[in-house]
Each structure stands twice: as C-alpha cells, then as structure tokens.
Design brief:
Blueprint: H1 2-14, H2 18-33, E1 37-44, E2 49-56, E3 67-69, H3 73-81, E4 85-87, E5 109-117, E6 120-129, H4 137-160, H5 162-166, E7 176-177, E8 179-182, E9 185-192, H6 210-235, H7 241-254, H8 257-268, H9 273-289, H10 294-297, H11 299-314, E10 328-332, H12 337-341, E11 348-353, H13 361-369, E12 373-375, E13 389-393, E14 398-401, H14 405-426, E15 443-447, E16 464-467, H15 470-474, H16 482-496, E17 501-504, H17 531-536, H18 538-551, E18 558-562, H19 568-587, E19 597-601, H20 604-608, H21 610-616, E20 619-622, H22 624-632, H23 650-665, E21 669-672, H24 683-689, E22 693-696, H25 701-710, H26 713-723, H27 729-742
Parallel strand pairs: 9-10, 10-11, 11-12, 15-16, 15-22, 16-17, 17-18, 18-19, 19-20, 20-21, 21-22
Antiparallel strand pairs: 1-2, 1-6, 2-3, 4-5, 5-6, 7-14, 8-12, 9-13, 13-14
GO molecular function: kinase activity; metal ion binding; phosphoenolpyruvate-protein phosphotransferase activity
EC number: 2.7.3.9
Subcellular location: Cytoplasm
Length: about 750
C-alpha cells in the first residue's frame, strides 16, 4: 500500500494539469483499493453545488454534468463534516441519494474522504462497492493521504484558470497564499531557477587518491570564494550596505573550520570529496534546522546552498546560461542570495519561493533591493510555471498565475500606486524621524553581520540598536577567542562611529545550540538559554565582555545589552562580571571605559520587575517577539497556534506601558527592537506610549519614518487611548489601519496608495 501511495503521489505531482491529475487519482486508487468505483467531486462555492469532475466506474458522460446541491447526499455530508465517512451499507443511510444520470447501480460500500486545503473543503474523493464493505483503516489512511495531495493540485488549478476551463460557467480566479517577505506589487514572467547540483543524490564512494580529493575540494572552495567576490561587486550599486553584509555571512560560513576541517577529515577517513561534502553540509545545516529562532533557522538554507555551489565546481558542472527577460519574476523552491544576484537588477521585478520566510536571506535581500517577494508559497508547482505570467503581491504574500484581465488590470493600477509611494518615501532620506509637533523618535538598525567593505552604515539609521553576536559562534567548531571576537566587534563599532552600537551578549540556548556545545531540552524556550548559560559559564561571558570593551577603545560608542533577563539577581551577577573584566583590562594597561549597560525585557517576570531592573542599568530594550510569545503562550513557528500570535494583543500593549512606567521612576530610556518596531501600524501606539527609540531591519526604516513624520504625538496618544479599550488584537488592528488610512498612508501596509 505504501509503495502504491508513493507512485500515485509522484504521478499526480508530475501531471501537466488538473484533468490529468484527477484521472490518475481515480484510476490508480480504484485499482489499489480494489473498489468498483472511484470518483472525485469538487465544490463549486459560487453556485453552491458539488460537481462530478472525474470517475472510473461510472458513465464518462456524467463528468461535468452531474451536479448535487451543496450539502445534499453523502457527498454533502462528508463535505459538511470535513472528515472521512466509511459505511458498509450506504443505501440505508438517511442521507443516501441515488443518482441515475451516472448509470450507477445500488452500491452499498462507501468511503468518502474530504479534500481539504487551509481548513476549506474543496471536494470529496469517493470509493464505492456493490457489495457491503467496510474499508480497512489502512485503506482509509491511504485515501485520506491522496486527498491531501489532490488539494494542492486543485488550488493551483483554480489560480491559473484550468478549473475555470473545466467548468462550463467558470469560477473567479484565486491566488496562491504564502508569507509576505518584501512589500510591493510585481507583474511579470516567471523564470524558474533550480540548484545546479544535488547534494542528496551524491553516493558514497571510496577515495582512491585522498590527497587528490583534498586538492579538488580546496580548489572548489576557492572558486566559490571568487564567485562570491564577483557577485558582491556586481550588486553593490543595487544593494544597501546592510544587505551587502549578507555576502560576508557566506564567506564566514565558507571559511569556517566546521565546513573545511569537517570535509577534509571525512575525505582522509576514506570518502571521496562530494560524499564528504554532503555529510558535512548535512551535519552543519541540521544545527540551524533544529533552532527555534526564525532568523537563525533560515541560515540552514544558506549552508545547503553553499554546499551546492561547492559541489557544482567539484563536478565541474557548466549550467546553461539562464535567459532573463524584462520583468522577470524569479521562482524557485529554495532560492539563494547568489541566484538573485545573478539577475540583472533592471530585469528583476519580483521573487517567489515555495520555502523560507521574511527572515531568510532571500527575504532580507528582496527588501533591501526593493523587490516585491512572497515566500512559502507551498502550493506553487514550480516545474509548471516557467514562462507563465505572474502577479506577486508582496504585501500579503499572494501569487496569481496567469491572471485574468480583471486581476491583471487591478494589480497594474496598484503597481502604479506603489511606484508613486516608493518615490515619496525616497524624499524622506536624511530627514529626522520627528512628529508634526516636534517629538523625535530615533530609528536604529537591527543587524547580525557587517561587511568589511561597507561604508559608514545606513544613513537612515542613527546607529545599531541590536547587534546579534550569535552567528560567528555558530559557524565555528570551537568558541571564538578574545582576539577573533574583538576584530568582529571593532569592525562594526568603527563603521558606525560616532553613532552608538548596542551589542547584545551571546544569546544561545536549547533552541540555538552550538555544534560544539550541544544541549538537549524538552522545552528550550523555558530552558537553559541566554544570560542563564553565560552566567553558568562565566569564562564565555568574560571573554566576550573583554572583547567588546577592547573593541571600543578610542571610539566610545559601545552599549552592552543583556538578553533573557528574568531576575534582578542575574543582572547583579552580570554587572559584577562586567566590572571584573573592566578592572582586569585596566590592570593590563588597556584604556577602556565602562559603556552604558541595558537589559532586554522579553520575559513576563521582567515586566513586573522593570522598576528594580531600571535601578540597576542604564536603559531597557523590549524584545517584542519573545515577550509576545511568552505572554500569550504561543510558539509562532507552530502552525497549529501561530494565528494566536499577535503583538497587538491588549496584554502586550499593557505590558509595554508597565515597562515604561517602571523605567520612568529612574529616568531610564526604553527602546523597542522586535518586529513591532518595524511595523508602520505600530508607530501610532509606540509614539503615543512615549517609547524613546525604535530598532528595526533596514527595509522598514523609511516606512516607519513616514508614519512618524505624518502624525502628531497628540494624535498618537488619542489612538493609543482608544486601543487600550479594545478587548482583542483584531479590534486594535482595525483601529490602527483606520488611523493610517486617515493620514493617507494605508498603502504602507497594503497594495494601493
């Protein structure tokens, strides 16, 4: 049964259109289960009916002609309940309805499985038997699994118009849903790209000449390094300095001990270079895959893509040049930064990936380049869209395949509005983030890597509000020493000087393990992570503090941020260690100064002790991502509960107010550095509350600045007052969208000005 399932799924996925996919389903399932009839009914919601679209066992002439009123018969019952129905004698069921137009006899055995996509029943897959028959559990599971495969094919067909052609009167076109990654609207032609080398297909093979394999591997690494340098030069005029830093991430991974030494060790143990590389990449990528932090988890795709690049050179593959057309919509299952960089900027209109999220390198690059992008468009059959016309709605993560005249016309209008909005935003460069009544809200940058060749940072930021230090630790196979860390920190401090740079101390844990410091925990979010680890391992903490203090000598633009604080005792311990490191460096002759020190408020306990925390430190920084997850007990990466995650939940808003009140007692400033800071909708609330500064990704700076410059603090306080009376996040969002529309800025969060 499992082998039959595998073959049928493969055939369905390779089917050129929905009609062929349905034919495969009914023929193969009937044969595999040994039923007398297999049919597929699809729901026509426009006309409220179930339509027979494919059958093996009933009259072929009935296809498309047999239409049941929605909810009638056993087909309607399966659709209503959205669960399988298995009857050994369906004829005696009160909902049984015999349809003579199909030429059917009295069938007793009945198994109906709903075809479900995103909680919506699209149709019913039906098996019939003349004799009484109760289908077995394995058979039910088999049919349900196939029904789920059919759901994706139906969704795609509805989007590209195939289903409309199968039905006499057609239905409205629909979109394929995904995740918004870069705002904007794009219309163009799909150009599909795919990895030039398949690591998973590499077999194990004994190395006949290990040193020759070593030479080939190191040569391939050198060639990839040259490719990276070439792409960085090619794209530097189109990318901001922050986005160019992503190439540094690749170089850092490429030159890491984990990648180089791990592969060399496997080669010298007997495997040939491609096989050794495959195992090393798999091991390295798994470290990132197991993390719960979205930003770091996305790095696994970078590791795999890097492995494919090396394998390409190892195999001496020469892929045929891709023909990019005007208004190219780049489409792929797992796009890489280098594949995007390969497209001439003047030809690139949009990006679509079936995997990833807004925090992937692809999403970051797309925002930096101002290219609309949709990620995780899982239902898009990549192999079938080459050369097809696409519409990409980067605001909502939607993709339309072969859009009809109405859809196309509407998005052409929206694209024109979007171009006008982008032009207006460019006029804000170099202007302060200041409300109409003179209240300034400094906008800082969140970052994790900085390019050596970059200029003095983004002009639109007044500094770095959050510098993540985890990645240089993760890509190594040992803890980096003081000198290596100091070099990294010195670079970012110099590039932004005299603007302040807030460096967060190491924030690793059960959800972000180091390959050389593994931790297995049942609940990593509530486990050994952040400051808890570094205080338990003071040698790690002291080395990092010494490195950042030395890196700031002569610059004095450093600020230190302590993550995952839940007790005042943790702050007291950390401060003692920081003072100890400072005194040690003074004794060694270094002219170091103690910088401002702050704590992250991301644990509910810290909210209730913010006054005591503010007494001990110089500033507070709110990590709204984790704070929201902890307050609402929601893992936003868990599909079952992700819809409950909302930073506009009244509990989150009240927590922010409590943090501000506690900080105010001791005259401490409060910044917000989570995703909420970069959301134009949130600007009303954060300005109204009196948040002192915001820190966000580069792509959000101008949009948030536009909102701040368009409102008064008085108006923001009025909106906040009403928001605090709302009882759920949806009501808050509606209020904020209305407020944004009232100042003519609704286009910042949706298509159209």
């Amino acid at each position: 049964m499992l082998e039959s399932l595998r073959r049928i799924v493969q055939q369905v996925n390779n089917a050129p259109d929905l009609e062929q996919a349905l034919r495969i389903i009914v023929e193969r399932v009937k044969q595999a289960v040994g039923a007398d009839v297999c049919s597929v009914y699809l729901n026509d919601f426009e006309h409220r009916r179930h339509v027979l679209h494919a059958t093996d066992g009933l009259r072929a002439t009935a296809v498309g002609r047999v239409r049941l009123e929605m909810g009638r018969g056993l087909i309607g019952l399966v659709s209503e309940r959205a669960e399988p129905i298995n009857l050994d004698d369906a004829v005696n069921h009160p909902r049984y309805q015999r349809i003579t137009d199909t030429g059917e006899e009295q069938y007793h055995g009945f198994l109906g499985a709903p075809i479900i996509q995103n909680r919506k029943v699209l149709g019913v897959l039906v098996l019939r038997q003349r004799e009484k028959r109760h289908f077995g559990d394995d058979e039910v599971t088999f049919v349900v699994t196939l029904a789920s495969q059919l759901a994706g094919a139906i969704t795609f067909a509805r989007t590209n118009g195939e289903l409309a052609r199968l039905q006499d009167d057609g239905i409205p076109q629909r979109f394929l849903p995904g995740l918004p990654a870069s705002p904007g609207v794009a219309l163009g032609t799909a150009v599909v790209v795919y990895p030039p080398a398949d690591l998973n297909a590499v077999p194990d093979r004994r190395a006949e000449n290990p040193e020759g394999e070593v030479h080939d591997f190191l040569s391939a690494v050198e060639q990839v390094a040259e490719d990276l340098d070439r792409f960085a030069v090619r794209t530097q005029s189109h990318l901001s300095a922050e986005d160019l830093a992503l190439f540094d991430a690749w170089r850092l991974m490429l030159e890491s001990d984990t990648l180089i030494d791990g592969t060399l060790t496997r080669i010298r143990s007997g495997n040939w270079a491609p096989g050794a590389l495959r195992d090393t990449i798999a091991e390295h990528a798994k470290v990132f895959d197991d993390m719960d932090d979205p930003y770091l988890r996305e790095r696994s795709s970078d590791v795999r893509d890097l492995g494919r690049c090396i394998l390409t050179h190892l195999q001496k593959l020469t892929a045929a040049p891709i023909q990019y057309v005007p208004n190219t919509i780049l489409v792929g299952e797992e796009l890489s930064a280098m594949q995007i960089a390969d497209v001439p900027r003047e030809l690139l209109a949009g990006i679509v990936s079936t995997t990833g999220s807004g925090s992937s390198h692809v999403g970051i690059l797309a925002r930096g380049m101002g290219v609309p992008a949709a990620m995780a468009v899982a239902d898009l059959p990549v192999g079938r869209v080459e050369g097809r016309e696409l519409v990409v709605d980067g605001y909502r993560g939607r993709v339309y395949v072969a859009p009809g005249p109405t859809v196309k016309s509407e998005y052409q209008r929206l694209a024109a509005d979007d171009a006008a909005l982008t032009s207006e935003l460019q006029a804000l460069r170099h202007l302060p983030a200041e409300t109409t009544d003179g209240y300034q809200v400094p906008l800082y940058l969140n970052t994790g890597l900085v390019s050596e060749a970059r200029p003095l940072g983004l002009e639109e930021s007044v500094g770095v509000g959050l510098y993540r230090t985890e990645l240089p630790f993760i890509v190594r196979d040992t803890f980096p020493g003081e000198a290596a860390q100091m070099s990294n920190y010195r670079r970012v401090l110099e590039l932004f000087a005299p603007r302040p740079v807030t460096i967060r101390t190491l924030d690793i844990g059960g959800d972000k393990p180091l390959p050389y410091f593994p931790m297995q925990e049942a609940n990593p979010f509530l486990g050994w992570r952040g400051i808890r680890i570094t205080l338990d391992q003071p040698d790690i903490f002291l080395t990092q503090i010494r490195a950042v203090l030395r890196a700031s000598i002569g610059l004095d633009n450093l600020q230190i941020l302590l993550p995952m604080i839940s007790t005042v005792g943790e702050v007291d311990e950390a401060l003692l260690l920081i003072h100890r490191a400072h005194e040690e460096l003074l004794e060694e002759g270094y002219q170091v100064h103690l910088p401002p020190i702050g704590v992250m408020i991301e644990v509910p306990a810290a909210v209730y002790q913010c006054e005591a925390l503010a007494r001990r430190v110089d500033f507070l920084s709110v990590g709204t991502n984790d704070l929201t997850q902890y307050l609402l007990a929601v893992d936003r990466n868990n599909a079952h509960v992700a819809k409950l995650y909302d930073e506009f939940h009244p509990a989150v808003l009240r927590a922010l107010l409590q943090i501000l009140a506690g900080a105010r007692v001791h005259g401490r400033e409060v910044s917000v550095c989570g995703e909420m800071a970069g959301d134009p909708l949130a600007a009303f609330l954060l300005v109204g509350m009196g948040i002192h500064s915001l820190s966000m990704g580069a792509g959000s700076l101008l949009r948030v600045k536009q909102v701040i410059r368009s409102i008064s603090r008085t108006r923001a306080r009025e909106v906040l007052k009403v928001a605090l009376q709302c009882e759920d996040a949806l009501a808050v969002r509606r209020l904020l969208l209305d407020a944004l529309e009232a100042v003519g800025l609704g286009g910042l969060v949706r298509p159209g000005k």
